[in-house]
Amino acid sequence: MTTAVVTGAGVVAPNGLGTEAFWSATLRGDHVIKPIDRYDTTRFTSRLAGEVRDFDAARYLPSRLLAQTDRMTQFALAAADWALADAALDTGELARTDLGVVTASAAGGFDFGQRELQNLWGEGPDHVSAYMSFAWFYAVNTGQISIKNDLRGPTGVLVAEQAGGIDALAHARRALRGGAEVVLSGGMDSSLCPYGMAARMAAGRLSTRDDPDRAFLPFDPDTDGHVPGEGGAILVLEEKDRALRRGASIHGEIAGHGATFDPRPSAMRPGNLGRAIELALADAGLAPGDIDVVFADADGSPENDRAEAEALVRLFGPYGVPVTAPKTMIGRLCSGGAPLDVVLALRALREGLIPPTIKVTPGYALDLVREGPRPFTGTAALVLARGHNGFNSALVLRGRGKDHR
């Protein structure tokens, strides 16, 4: 069986650009959820978000791409470049058909789409960009990364809201097993425009509080929904033996994956998150006791928090494994959130530090890592993600500390 390893990572997050800045800010507990300042939020019931405030696309991308890309695609293109640089990978040494791209996006280019629709109704059809034909599309990140880097191997896109970021990595691992040499994968989203926020508000899952410190409190009895964010991560996946032959530095291994789907709420049947975890453990050849830390989905809604807590307690026992949800600092990033958790989990295994969950006082029998980073010794992490309307995904990662090669 092919062993898929991560050799590079590129991060665009509300609390940092690049892996090092993101990791350091997360360990410090930098809380960047703030009032949205891109538009007038007076008529919106949800007015907070984790915005990426220091990204200047013109610094990182050719000018020809700026006019034809949405904000999320600009994030994705920059993150892909950073991931390839981190992997020290010269793609020119490989056949173009051996290089693939698989990404996830939950919304597509909402910001671009809103602007062009405003142009249509405000100034007429002659003022709508020709790039509107693809810039709004949820598959555009895969396409633009592929075109910019001349990657002509297996491609794909996953649309499963928050769970999509994990499913994309699993699909990339499948592509490696099918013969691809290298696959760029991950997730990226940015829909903090009025149109995107209106769509999110309609789902009834956003916090309506204006106090950033009390707006996103997963597993807390005082929870009020979640706060949205933007950004994500792109990773470089390779087959392990190939990576070792070229002397690559390996961040860790994608060891196991499981995905399930929940019944409709009206069916009155329990959810299947626990089954997704069991499938991921079986795929990795591990038992629950082998998991050293869990990066929780941490939805922030009372019913989903309860379901996740019950699944973790059932599988690992009360307070049986350290659990963390660093997304309380930056919000839920849809398909970009889980790949960021993967970056954190791999780094946690390497450094022996679990990043904290901030602002939360848990109401469940979970060993939630709070206040500050927690030292630990571990080789396996579990990352969870759930998408609205029933998607469940679980990913098991292996690492071997600072000397892992």
UniProtKB/TrEMBL annotation:
Read off the PROSITE patterns from this record.
Answer: KS3_2
Pfam families linked:
ketoacyl-synt, Ketoacyl-synt_C
On whether Acyltransferase is a keyword of this UniProt record, the answer is yes
Q: Does the keyword Transcription regulation apply?
A: no
Which CDD domains does this one have? CLF
Q: Which UniProt keywords apply?
A: Acyltransferase, Transferase
Specify the domain of life of the species encoding this protein: Bacteria
Provide the Ketosynthase family 3 (KS3) domain boundaries. 1-399
Q: From the UniProt record, which GO molecular function terms apply? A: 3-oxoacyl-[acyl-carrier-protein] synthase activity
Any single biological process term in GO: fatty acid biosynthetic process
The record's annotation in InterPro entries points to:
Beta-ketoacyl_synthase, Ketoacyl_synth_C, Ketoacyl_synth_N, PKS_Beta-ketoAc_synthase_dom, Thiolase-like
Instruction: Name the protein family.
Output: Belongs to the thiolase-like superfamily. Beta-ketoacyl-ACP synthases family.
Full protein name = Ketosynthase chain-length factor
Q: Which organism is it from?
A: Streptomyces kanamyceticus
